[in-house]
Amino acid sequence: MAYHWLKGRLPFRDQEEFQAFLDTYFTVVGLDPGLAFSAARVKVEGDKLLQRSLDPGLSRRRLSAADAAIIALARRLEAPIITGDRDLAHVARSMGIEVVWQ
Length: 102
Known about the structure:
Radius of gyration: 15 Å
Structural class: mainly alpha
Number of strands: 2
Strand content: under 5%
């Protein structure tokens, strides 16, 4: 979300307002060694899933480390993912994770 705010895609006046929104509506989970290792496994498996995709727009792509961490966290929390990112959505769905929006 911070990336999208910094790119001007979210309507917060300043960093303080944005931070207040995050503190009110989100819980931030830290990256621990177990989650990092799970994300690495997701990255390796996700790259293979993308490579095998029949969609030429996906078959040349690779999963980002951030997307791999999101999938690993969704697995840990048994939570759906909200994303507009095609790579992330494809890999998440292929791994049995619900994608709420794409």
